[in-house]
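S.,

Sequence below, as promised.
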Amino acid sequence: MGGDNETMVAEFLLLGLSGKSEQEVVVFAMFLGMYMVTISGNLLIILAISCDPHLHTPMYFFLANLSGVDICFSSVTIPKALVNHVLGSKSISYTECMIQIYFFITFINMDGFLLSVMAYDRYVAICHPLHYTMMMRPRLCVLLVAISWVITNLHALLHTLLMVRLRFCSHNAVHHFFCDPYPILKLSCSDTFVNDLMVFTVGGVIFLTPFSCIVVSYVYIFSNVLKMPSARGIRKALSTCGSHLTVVSLFYGAILGVYMRPSSSYSLQDTVATVIFTVVTPLVNPFIYSLRNRDMKGALRKIILRS
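The prediction came back faster than expected:
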């Protein structure tokens, strides 16, 4: 390489979703509106659950945690993009980028783990209703969430440390609105074989384990539901799973299409797909869980009337 190419990168340029200034204004307005709705919607979910004693159950404990993670997940990526637009800048420092990658990996995996724990909760509630209270003890619920936090943070630390060891030369333009690990890997002038290997091995295990738990849980749920004698019982059982299944499909459908491939194959279409699980999923979660849940609607109605 020439001497110019050996210059180490001190910052990255986040080019966003569109290179045209008039389109960037529209994207800014959309992101700002969606971010505000995401924060307020998920805060309302947490507030409703904490204020209503009837919602102090394992299912809503996990839902409150999911809402908290969604707030953090959105706050890792969107605010920086909004600030850059207001300042007329596209830059993010190398350190900020690595921090963003760490928390992005942490929260995206935490979402997956919480969705799998919620699937297990539904499995116990439908397949073992008489033993639900004993099996889903508060201590176990807290332990499941705590273990999930430990695993996701260690996983994020592994990938961030592997990213830090790479060298980035003259190319620093990222075709994204945040530091997505795959586009950043494509910019490295070092060998990324170890990074790709860890994504497919450790990352695959961390990603596919919760997904497998969700699939197995719902296989048992549906096999149990089909044995129910009354149509009313089937509808009631499925109604408790409908919201969760919708979120799981939206979240995992987008991620499987983007990250279960080598980083070299990452394209602009994948950039658009990441918007689904980084922006859209945290936005729609409160609506999906509240509009399809009578208890949540009742708790939210009490808060609104009280205020």
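The longest strand covers residues 11-14.

Coffee later?
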